[in-house]
């Protein structure tokens, strides 16, 4: 459902008449999982951003709690005591980072939305730059990660992955883009039209189009706590990204078929000339390997298609531990008096 803008009564300095002007509702969505040590430090920084924006925007802080098992909810409650526009969507189980973002998209209310990680690797202060770009007319403003504090090998692997993904993707993929972004309600409504069991939000944001711009930045170190991503998690994430954005693995066996046939001919000729059983075995291994790889790729996509066909929800909200945003105040339908009083006869 498209959220309606909240409205603020603004006095005109020229006369006693008033008009109702829309005050846009900005919802900052923050996914969290076992981040009790990080939330107070994050809030100390995001609070200054909220205070700066509060004169022109109605700001909500919405935590997406991915079934945390530590004191994360208690820390969120402490934040709410200081900032009343703090809300939380708690999921009934840990569904992963991407699915929690999708749940936030489907349930958040507002005119503008921001995704930001709680660990402050994406600096909260950049939201002010996002707003500035939005006010210039952009529908999507995102952070472009030009550098980050991590080992050079992992940094090189990340760059290679995104460049490979851009080459093999069926549609446009923005390099070095992540979920750290600001987008309008129109963009959000386009994003939630996708029904997939395997959401990949950064790819979806690239795919929907609209007017967009990037702000380059260097990603900071995690402010506290330990990361939930390891090498295995990064690998799974990379595979999921390729499967979500590209059908090349399905076509790859066809592209490699000529090379496989040439190999069979060569091994067959060598077997005839030398009568060595090793060449026959090599030919059999090549043919079976090509066939097995083809079936494996097909199975991956068929499995994903089957899951999508079930149309199961990706997440369920635990309302006992959630505090959802209230509905927006509807626009007053009464006629708006003019700013300038009509001349009396």
Automatic annotation (TrEMBL):
Pfam families: Glycos_transf_2 (PF00535)
SUPFAM superfamilies, sorted: Nucleotide-diphospho-sugar transferases (SSF53448)
Stretch list, region Disordered: 325-345
Residue ranges with Pro residues bias: 335-345
Principal subcellular localisation of the protein: membrane
Subcellular location: Membrane
Highest rank taxon of the organism: Bacteria
Single GO MF annotation: glycosyltransferase activity
Keyword annotations: Glycosyltransferase, Membrane, Transferase, Transmembrane, Transmembrane helix
GO CC annotation, single: plasma membrane
Residues passing through the membrane, by range: 227-245, 252-272, 278-302
Annotated ranges, domain Glycosyltransferase 2-like: 27-165
Bilayer topology: Multi-pass membrane protein
UniProt name for this protein: Glycosyltransferase
Organism name: Azospirillum brasilense
């Amino acid at each position: 459902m498209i959220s309606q803008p909240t409205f603020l009564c603004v006095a005109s300095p020229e006369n006693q008449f008033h008009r109702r002007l829309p005050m846009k509702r900005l919802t900052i969505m923050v996914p969290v999982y076992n981040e009790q040590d990080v939330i107070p430090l994050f809030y100390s920084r995001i609070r200054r951003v909220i205070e700066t924006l509060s004169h022109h925007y109605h700001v909500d802080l919405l935590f997406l709690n991915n079934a945390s098992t530590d004191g994360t909810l208690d820390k969120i409650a402490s934040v709410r005591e200081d900032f009343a526009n703090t809300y939380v969507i708690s999921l009934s189980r840990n569904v992963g980072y991407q699915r929690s973002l999708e749940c936030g998209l489907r349930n958040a209310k507002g005119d503008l939305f921001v995704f930001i990680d709680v660990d402050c690797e994406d600096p909260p202060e950049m939201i002010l730059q996002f707003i500035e770009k939005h006010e210039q007319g952009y529908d999507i403003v995102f952070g472009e990660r030009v550098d980050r504090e991590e080992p050079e090998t992992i940094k090189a692997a990340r760059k290679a992955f995104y460049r490979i993904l851009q080459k093999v993707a069926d549609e446009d993929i923005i390099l070095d883009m992540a979920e750290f972004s600001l987008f309008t309600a129109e963009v959000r409504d386009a994003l939630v039209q996708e029904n997939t069991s395997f959401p990949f939000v950064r790819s979806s944001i690239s795919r929907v189009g609209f007017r967009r711009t990037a702000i380059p930045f260097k990603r900071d170190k995690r402010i506290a706590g330990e990361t939930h991503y390891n090498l295995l998690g990064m690998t799974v994430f990379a595979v999921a990204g390729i499967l979500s954005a590209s059908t090349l693995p399905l076509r790859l066996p066809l592209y490699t078929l000529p090379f496989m046939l040439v190999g069979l001919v060569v091994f067959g000729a060598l077997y005839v000339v030398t009568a060595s059983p090793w060449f026959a075995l090599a030919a059999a291994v090549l043919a079976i390997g090509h066939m097995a790889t083809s079936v494996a790729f097909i199975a991956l996509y068929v499995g994903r298609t089957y899951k999508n066909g079930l149309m199961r929800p990706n997440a369920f909200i635990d309302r006992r531990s959630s505090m959802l945003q209230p509905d927006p105040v509807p626009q007053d339908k009464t006629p708006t008096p003019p700013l300038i009083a009509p001349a009396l006869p």
